[in-house]
Amino acid sequence: MANKVVTLDGEFAGWQCELRPQVSARILLELESGQPSRALAAFAQIVVSHNFKGLDGQSVEDVLDAPIDALTATIEKWAQGNSLDPK
Question: Looking at the whole model, is its pTM more than 0.70?
């Protein structure tokens, strides 16, 4: 299965993130933990590549150094195309 590319718009127009299309049970548990620190760390594990920038406008190596609004938008778009319900 091919990776999924999420392209953001609005304030983050042109920002792209390539993500794995599937997750392991462990990552699913972390994503659905209800604890932002655990969910974001799990999300970072499915990122293959990105062109995100930090709050200072400079490119960041670690996706977790990008603005939280960009990460939230990316997670939402990625989740739209993926069923995170293991049933």
Answer: yes
pLDDT tens figures, 2-48: 999 999 999 999 999 999 988 999 999 999 999 999 999 999 999 99
Please provide the DSSP assignment of 34-55 as one string. S-HHHHHHHHHHHEEEE--B-T
Nearest to 70 by CA among 27, 10, 5: 10
What is the Cα–Cα distance from 84 to 33, expressed in whole angstroms?
Answer: 13
Q: How far is CA 62 from CA 33, 82, 83, 85, in A?
A: 22, 23, 26, 27
User: Do residues 26 and 56 lie in contact, with contact meaning Cβ atoms separated by under 8 Å?
Assistant: no
Question: How buried is 3 (Cβ within 10 angstroms: 0-12 exposed, 13-18 middle, 19+ buried)?
Answer: middle
Burial of 8 (0-12, 13-18, 19+ CB in 10 A): middle
